[in-house]
Amino acid sequence: DAGVIQSPRHEVTEMGQEVTLRCKPISGHDYLFWYRQTMMRGLELLIYFNNNVPIDDSGMPEDRFSAKMPNASFSTLKIQPSEPRDSAVYFCASSKGTVGTGELFFGEGSRLTVL
Amino acid sequence: SQQGEEDPQALSIQEGENATMNCSYKTSINNLQWYRQNSGRGLVHLILIRSNEREKHSGRLRVTLDTSKKSSSLLITASRAADTASYFCATDRGSGNTPLVFGKGTRLSVIA
Q1: How far out from the chain centre does Cα B13 lie?
Q2: Is A30 helix (H, G, I), strand (E, B) or coil?
Q3: What is the DSSP track for A63-100?
Q4: Residue A49: pLDDT over 90
Q5: Considering only CB atoms, which chain B residues are within 8 Å of A105?
Q6: In this complex, do A45 and B101 lie within 8 Å of one another by their Cβ atoms?
């Protein structure tokens, strides 16, 4: 089992540029989550999907952030335009079964630096 | 918003000693989970304890849950240098199916 796969692992960009982060969940998992991790705020839930449908996006900080899940094996998190305060590690995680009660499987994260 | 809060923020011990980390949370829960994160890596699930359980063991890990105090503890016995990592507790919110909310973690350093 390949686990949750995220790309890119590292991204350095300049303020104002568009950033797209990608995630491939574990096959057969019906929940996909995007989290953001910073030293100041810890691990924050941004959005999560169930069977490719967004369920709760209340954690998305601003309209500059958007997420899609066009099929069961792929999701993107887009930031446009990016700002220095978006610098963080973004994690994708997937799980199976009822949300909140099952084990989350995390990817290795995408470390974003916005200059 | 944060549901769980770990204590201490950082802990440094000698190899072979036991490490205890605590987690407090605010609302009722269905379950509480502990995760581990090595530097520069993703989080890895360690153990889940349900709200009707008081204690659970897995290898060198022992987790307790006190729902009356809204707190949990993670004990790692006979620690090893390889246990050096950050440890996070995560909870749901107890009211229906809600996603996990994580604390800020405890950074554990085990010195050989």
Answers
A1: 17
A2: coil
A3: TTEEEEEEETTEEEEEESS--GGG-EEEEEEEE-SSTT
A4: yes
A5: 45
A6: yes
